[in-house]
TrEMBL record:
Its cofactor is Zn(2+). It comes from Labrys monachus. The keyword Coiled coil does not apply. Belongs to the creatininase superfamily. The keyword Metal-binding applies. It holds the Pfam family Creatininase. This is Creatinine amidohydrolase. Coiled coil: none annotated. InterPro entries: Creatininase-like_sf, Creatininase/forma_Hydrolase. Its EC number is 3.5.2.10. GO terms for molecular function: creatininase activity. It is an enzyme of class 3 (hydrolase).
Length: 291
């Protein structure tokens, strides 16, 4: 097997066209951070989802040693109509978002890359991303999607200190990660001060205030978490977030995402529609099969 050739940087936008072509010919995989620009309560910036998906994706890509993993420019805008009651939210319409995802993926595959991963940082993007990936894969385009926090979820959830033992929105998890990745001490202190005193919120925001039951969660049904103008804009327990928790969560999340990148690149995957049982269509691994 030919040894992979690693470029001088893994950031797509900092490479020349010739360098990107060399990465492609060396069997590189491309990962695309996707996020959202939307309100994150009074303590986190509207760029939180895009920033976290970008940082985590870049850190995970650097840990992969089996092949080069190029990190494409982040798609910052997502599907966020449920946050539009609050200033600062910029949402693409569903049809626009699906079209943009498709154009990005098709551009990369048509230029010769054999495996693409959208790394999602916003829960509201999940359903559109999965639907689009389903269409792309059956159309013959080798594209996957993963939410950055999911591969390590079973390991980082027990590290949470607050009342909501899962991810939410502008929650302990996101707040702790933003503290760990803050540019300076002043920014971290601003986040801590703004989150201080926020009461835990463990009932989904789709339930009207004061109603005691949540039939949507109980049945596993679907309803977007509508954050209207009278809403505090968060779901979880951000007040208990600490830099230390964020550092622990970040290490787990990055390590498990890097493992997913490596394992996914080495896995033969069914691709497209093949009606001949003797000739199934398989997307070949980018790296040698694991022993």
């Amino acid at each position: 097997m030919t040894e992979p050739v690693f470029p001088r940087t893994l950031l797509w936008q900092d490479l020349t066209s010739d360098e990107i072509a060399a990465c492609r010919d060396s069997g590189a995989m491309v990962v695309v951070p996707v996020g959202a620009i939307e309100q994150h309560a009074a303590h986190l910036p509207v760029e939180t989802d895009a920033r976290l998906s970008t940082f985590v994706t870049r850190l995970a890509a650097r840990r992969v040693t089996a092949l080069p993993v190029l990190v494409a420019p982040t798609l910052p805008f997502g599907f966020s109509p449920h946050h539009l009651s609050h200033a600062g939210t910029i949402s693409l319409r569903l049809e626009t978002y699906l079209a943009v995802l498709g154009d990005i993926a098709v551009s990369m595959v048509d230029s010769g890359f054999r495996r693409i991963v959208f790394v999602n940082g916003h829960g509201g993007n999940n359903a559109p991303l999965r639907a689009k990936v389903g269409q792309l894969v059956t159309d013959g385009y080798p594209v996957a999607t993963v939410e950055y926090w999911v591969p390590g979820e079973s390991q980082w959830i027990p590290k949470l200190l607050g009342a909501l033992r899962r991810g939410g929105h502008a929650c302990e998890q996101e707040t702790a990660l933003m503290l760990a990745l803050a540019d300076d001490a002043a920014e971290a202190e601003r986040i801590r001060a703004a989150a201080r005193g926020m009461p835990p919120r463990t009932i989904q925001p789709w339930i009207a205030p004061g109603y005691p039951d949540d039939p949507v969660t109980e049945a596993g049904a679907a309803w977007p978490p509508i954050f209207q103008a009278d809403d505090g804009g968060y779901y979880g327990d951000p007040a208990v977030a600490t830099v230390e928790t964020g550092q622990v969560l970040l290490e787990i999340i990055v390590e498990r995402l890097a493992k997913f990148f490596t394992d996914f690149a080495a896995a033969p995957m069914r691709l497209g529609v093949s009606r001949d049982p003797a000739r199934p269509s398989i997307a070949q691994p980018l790296v040698g099969n694991r022993t």
